[in-house]
Write a structure and sequence with these properties.
34% of the residues lie in helices and 23% in strands. The chain contains 26 helices and 36 strands. Strand 29, helix 20 and strand 30 form a beta-alpha-beta unit. Helix 1 crosses helix 16 and helix 22 packs parallel to helix 23. Bound molecules: zinc ion (ZN). The site of zinc ion (ZN) has 8 residues, from loops.
């Protein structure tokens, strides 16, 4: 029989595929194989089967790991697009797209092949005997026999097939049934809860029971754990011990779905506004065509209900759905709302799931048992069968962009590409859409849908407090006006949120007299202060100058480089409001699995009067008793050295405003700033997103920043300061030669110049935004080819990462 050749994608930074030969005629594209790779072995995925004999000598495929392709055509094409567009290897993308157990990092177990025949030497016999009694994990075996003779003996055993490498976990696990929870026979939740004292009701497991009793039970153990931090192994076991719930083994494929779907109270009727939007989304779905929408609606305008109806429509058409959310821990209410309607039909792909749970969720989608997936960024690769609709909620959120490690993809853009491949509909939803999506609407790439009404209550009032006018009228970090508002709210037993969004790592110079922050003459972004060299630096263009000694706006010599942290604000508040109970929410207080949720629930249950926090407090939370929100220093966000600083500021203020007064009590947002004239602040006051977007886009166009260009950022990292600098300069020389002078910016030290033993530099190129995946790849290939020919001595010690469409 003729030799077959297979091209294999392997997760390595090398940008190409690797060709092997095989005699297995049943090998197919999308199957994983076990192949010798460099000095070891690797799992790779077959991306092409052919009979073109390459010029070099090929090595054989050792083992085919799957009976059926684990990736279908659409996913192979999608991952290929990500590979081309984001300049990473196809293997890296596939690795990121598959769960542990099916991707390339799964455990490899070494076992003795039964009934092997052949000559072996003494060392090999010893190894086999040991393996016979205890199968080793491959990496443990490689550690156990890592030296000289033993090492080569082990290799030979594997190569000859006397010792075999097995995949784990997966195949052997029985996924047909799973543990589900139901209410115990005689449990009457209302009666149980009525008997409890208020104190008892505050216990975590009692709260868990209360929430559980409102769910469409039975639900699987893993689904519950995934959807809400209140449900843990402990709380569920505790409830079971009380005899309120019982565990049952049920088929994973559940027919209760039909009951849930027909429970009329679970689906809310759409308002007239929502109905119009829904009709637009459904039209292309009826025809089975690709379409993309930007759904613009303020917080509380009912986007989620539109999503739910559209998902329902997709299911009726026999197709699936995919919902991306920025971070599940921050959006528990949204996820629960989907659960109420779709029940166990949903697979939640969540970073808190164990590897096995992720694998199960993946399988339940792949097999068609479940047909809606919800999850953060990486869920864009969820194997939903026959996908009909993709929803990207909070589409502007920066967490959709992967930064490290490669592949550095943007889940929103991958979702759009996936929708075109699947002939599905994609809906990008946001109260403050990103400029990229706004531009796409102007170019008629997306259709704009609007939900203008906020059904319950009106938008809160936003008051801008110009710090220039409050000189001498400050109480610590707050103006007299904000101080009085807080005092009044606390008197009424209402709650206060104080936002202090200092970005820990970017330091900048600010005048204490007039609030002026020096801007770069080249990119109009704020200059960052680098203490080591005592300079102000523009990390886009590389422009730098010595640290100013006088304010360039007012001449004052009172310049400071350090703002205060949330902890300091907390101390000052404790002094101002000695009777108030304070709570802090920042990276320090929310570490750990459920840290964020813990602080959130403490505040929600009224255990504190004032919540002080970073931007975390603005995300996805709903506090009905909050009537005063204070943004202590809006300028810290504006001073962030990014052309997106204004966009971020607007988003932040809009989110914060969405938090205030969502129930019956109207709220007021106080924004303290030195720059009341800034467009982000001016337009946030009137909730006028369109006006803000117009101004913001005009500015970006002037400076050719995205979305008027495509930005590719090169990151250079090395333990050697001199090498990273010389490589960065050489590299930019090459880039300038190949592209043109005016699209290259840099190189310059990164905002974080030194991190975990590495010096970091960066450079940018701004490409015409019509550059396709292929033309970006061709250009980058050319750059790297040329660079390889001229790279300076010691270049190997410098790592170069490429980030296409970077978001800093
Ligand atoms: Zn000044």
């Amino acid at each position: 029989m003729a030799e077959l050749y297979v091209d294999i994608a392997i997760p390595t930074a090398v940008q190409r595929v690797f060709t092997y030969h095989t005699r297995h005629s049943d090998v197919k594209r999308g199957m994983r194989v076990w192949v010798p790779f460099r000095n070891t072995y690797a799992i790779g995925m077959v991306v092409r089967v052919h009979s073109e004999r390459p010029e070099f000598e090929t090595r054989p495929v050792e083992q085919i790991l799957d009976d059926e392709p684990v990736m279908d055509e659409v996913m192979l094409k999608l991952t290929e697009w990500v590979h081309r567009f984001y300049y990473c290897s196809h293997g890296e993308v596939i690795q990121a797209a598959l769960p542990v157990g099916l991707n390339f990092t799964s455990e490899k177990i070494l076992k003795v092949k039964k009934g092997f025949k052949g000559e072996i030497n003494e060392t090999q016999r010893e190894i086999l005997e040991e393996l016979e009694s205890t199968p080793y994990r491959l990496r443990d075996a490689e550690k156990r026999w890592r030296e000289g003779k033993e090492r080569s003996a082990l290799r030979q055993l594997i190569k000859k097939g006397y010792a075999e490498v097995w995949e784990q976990p997966g195949k052997k696990v029985d996924y047909k049934t799973a543990r589900h929870w139901v209410l115990a026979d005689k449990t009457d939740p209302a009666a149980v809860l009525n008997r409890m004292s208020e104190k008892e009701k505050k216990r975590k497991w009692v709260q868990a029971f209360e929430r559980l009793s409102k769910m469409p039970l039975p639900l699987s153990h893993s689904a519950l754990i995934a959807m809400d931090p209140l449900f843990t192994g402990y709380t569920l076991r505790r409830i079971e011990e009380e005899g309120w719930i019982t565990a049952v083994d049920l088929p994973v494929k559940s027919d209760r779905w039909h009951q849930a779907r027909h429970e009329p109270h679970r689906i809310k009727t759409l308002s007239e506004d929502q109905q119009k939007v829904y009709q637009e989304i459904v039209k292309p779905m009826e025809r089975g065509e690709y379409a993309s929408f930007l759904l613009h609606g303020v917080t509380g305008s009912g986007k989620t209900e539109v999503y739910i109806h559209a998902l329902k429509k997709s299911l009726e058409k026999g197709r699936g759905g995919l919902v991306l959310v920025p971070e599940i821990a921050l959006t528990p209410q949204t996820v629960q709302r989907f659960y109420q309607v779709f029940g166990d039909q949903i697979a939640v792909l969540h970073s808190r799931l164990t590897d096995r749970e992720k694998y199960e969720a993946w399988q339940s989608l792949k097999s068609g048992e479940k047909n809606i997936a919800i999850g953060p960024r990486s869920a864009v690769f969820a194997p939903v069968e026959n996908l009909g609709i993709l929803i990207v909620d909070e589409e502007h959120d920066a967490s959709y962009k992967q930064f490290d490690p490669s592949p550095r993809y943007h889940a929103r853009d991958v979702a759009i590409m996936r929708a075109t491949l699947e002939k599905a509909v994609v809906v990008l939803g946001s109260a403050t859409p990103g400029m990229v999506s706004v531009k796409a609407v102007m170019e008629k790439k997306h259709k704009l849908l609007q939900l203008s009404m906020r059904p319950t209550g009106s938008m809160p009032e936003v008051r801008i407090l110009d710090l220039k006018a409050y000189k001498g009228a400050m109480r610590g970090p707050v103006t007299v006006e904000l101080y009085q508002a807080m005092e009044q709210a606390l008197k009424r037993k209402e709650q206060v949120i104080l936002l202090y969004n200092r970005r820990g790592y970017a330091s900048f110079l600010r005048c204490e007299e007039c609030g002026h922050v020096p801007q770069s003459p080249e990119s109009s972004t704020s200059l960052t202060y680098h203490k080591r060299k005592n300079i102000l630096l523009d990390h886009y263009s590389g422009y730098s100058r010595r640290r100013d000694t006088r304010c360039e706006a007012c001449g004052s010599e009172k310049l400071s480089t350090q703002g205060s942290g949330t902890q300091q604000i907390e101390e000052e508040m404790a002094a101002l409001f000695p009777n108030a109970r304070l709570l802090r929410m920042d990276r320090d207080t929310t570490s750990g699995k459920h840290g964020h949720q813990r602080v959130y629930e403490q505040f929600l249950s009224g255990k504190a009067d004032i919540l002080i926090g970073t931007q975390l407090v603005a995300k996805g939370l709903d506090f009905p008793n909050v009537t005063v929100v204070g943004v202590i220093d809006a300028d810290t966000e504006l001073a962030f050295p990014s052309f997106r600083a204004g966009e971020r500021m607007y988003q932040l203020l809009s989110q914060v405003a969405g938090r205030a007064g969502r129930a019956e009590k109207p709220g007021i947002v106080y924004v303290q700033t030195w720059r009341p004239e800034h467009p982000a602040i001016r337009h946030a006051r009137t909730h006028d997103f369109r006006a803000f977007a117009r101004e913001e886009l005009r500015e970006r166009e002037l400076l050719l920043f995205p979305p008027f260009s495509r930005m590719v950022v090169f990151h250079f990292k090395s333990p050697s300061a001199s090498r990273v600098q010389s490589v960065a300069h050489k590299f930019c020389e090459v880039v300038r030669k190949i592209t043109s002078e005016n699209v290259v910016m840099g190189p310059s030290p990164s905002v974080i110049e030194w991190l975990s033993g590495q010096y970091q530099w960066e450079a940018n190129i701004k490409l015409d935004r019509r550059y396709s995946a292929n033309s970006i790849r061709n250009l980058l290939d050319k750059i790297f080819e040329e660079y390889d020919a001229v790279k300076p001595k010691g270049a190997a010690a410098v790592r170069i990462n490429v980030d296409v469409d970077a978001i800093e």
